[in-house]
């Protein structure tokens, strides 16, 4: 696997209205290429992490290699582009945060992706992937910037969301009006981690938690926030819900993607919301890979 770190300038997308005269905005990204590059179109996965995380969700270098989504997929001959969402991880945190919104952040992500595609300088076969809040963002991006051939939406609920033992209304009430918020990691452990996830792994993940733009926290907790976007997507869609996850009615989720020519729902047993850390992660990735190949 060959990996390249990048800082991609997206200031022009946000503009002076958001950034003022003195700020710039950059997206931290890493492009992971397989050692044996395929001929023809390059299969490229563009993956967005969830709230409180960074691109390390997909490639946690602080854990053993069996936890790396990236290593699994590059071994299948696919390239993987990871980003830190704007306002999270190593990406810029524009101030005041109140000038940001879901649509602007999605536009910044789309611009970062376009820059990398131009740098590659070869045709790509593009799959968009999002987990949790990142799934909300990949749906937003796919609707407004339709470059993906297929879409994988993991751990997102278009039904009224459930967050384990955590009361959604109390989270909504506790959100600050503007700024960057820390996720209540301990309170969400039952939602995020199946009992087979070692305590040491959970603690290592939580020690590296990222702040999240308040605007995205509000959006993720707003019922119906991407209903219209979901309904407009006209490419194959794969939905993934774990045994413990955000949707109270997973079987209803496919109906929100009315324009998609194909919508499949995968139920991942013996896993909670953060599928990449469960003991079943390898079989989960194998199913994703098989679906991508079948839809290519």
What's the helix count? 10
How many angstroms does the end-to-end distance come to? 22 Å
The CATH architecture would be 3-Layer(aba) Sandwich
From N to C, what is the helix and strand string?
A: EHEEHEHEHEHEHHEHHEEH
- Number of structural domains: 1
> Ranges with pLDDT <50 over ≥5 residues?
none
CA-based gyration radius: 18 Å
Mean pLDDT: 95
> β content, as a range?
15-25%
- Mind telling me the CATH superfamily name? Alpha/Beta hydrolase fold, catalytic domain
Percentage of residues assigned to helices: 25-40%
Under CATH, the topology is which? Rossmann fold
**Structural class label:** alpha/beta
Indicate the CATH class: Alpha Beta
How is this structure best described in words?
The protein is built from 10 helices and 10 strands. The chain is of the alpha/beta class and 296 residues long. It has one domain (2-294): Rossmann fold (3-Layer(aba) Sandwich). The strands form 2 sheets. It has an 8-stranded mixed β-sheet, with helices on both faces. Helix 3 packs across helix 4 (133-144). The longest helix is centred in the middle third of the chain and has 19 residues, at 102-120.
């Amino acid at each position: 696997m060959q990996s390249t770190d990048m800082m991609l300038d997206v200031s022009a997308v946000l503009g002076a209205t958001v950034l003022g005269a003195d700020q710039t905005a950059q997206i931290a990204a890493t492009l992971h290429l397989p050692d044996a590059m395929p001929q023809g179109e390059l299969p490229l996965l563009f993956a967005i992490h969830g709230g409180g995380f960074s691109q390390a969700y997909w490639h946690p270098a602080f854990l053993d290699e069996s936890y790396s989504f990236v290593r699994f997929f590059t071994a299948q001959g696919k390239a993987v582009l990871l980003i830190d969402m704007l306002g999270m991880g190593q990406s810029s945190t524009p101030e005041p945060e109140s000038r940001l919104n879901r649509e602007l952040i999605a536009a910044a992500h789309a611009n970062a992706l376009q820059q990398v595609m131009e740098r590659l300088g070869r045709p790509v076969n593009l799959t968009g992937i999002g987990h949790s809040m990142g799934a909300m963002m990949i749906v937003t991006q796919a609707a407004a910037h339709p470059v993906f051939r297929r879409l994988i939406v993991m751990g997102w609920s278009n039904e009224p969301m459930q967050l384990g033992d955590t009361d959604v209304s109390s989270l909504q009430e506790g959100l600050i009006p503007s700024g960057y918020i820390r996720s209540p990691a301990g309170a969400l452990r039952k939602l995020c981690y199946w009992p087979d996830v070692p305590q040491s792994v959970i603690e290592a993940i939580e020690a590296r938690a990222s702040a999240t733009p308040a605007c995205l926290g509000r959006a993720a907790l707003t019922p119906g926030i991407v209903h219209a976007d979901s309904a407009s997507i006209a490419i194959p869609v794969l939905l993934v819900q774990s045994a413990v996850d955000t949707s109270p009615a997973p079987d209803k989720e496919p109906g929100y993607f009315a324009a998609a020519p194909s919508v499949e729902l995968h139920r991942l047993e013996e896993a909670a919301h953060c599928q990449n850390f469960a003991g079943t992660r390898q079989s989960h990735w194998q199913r994703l890979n098989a679906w991508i190949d079948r839809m290519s």
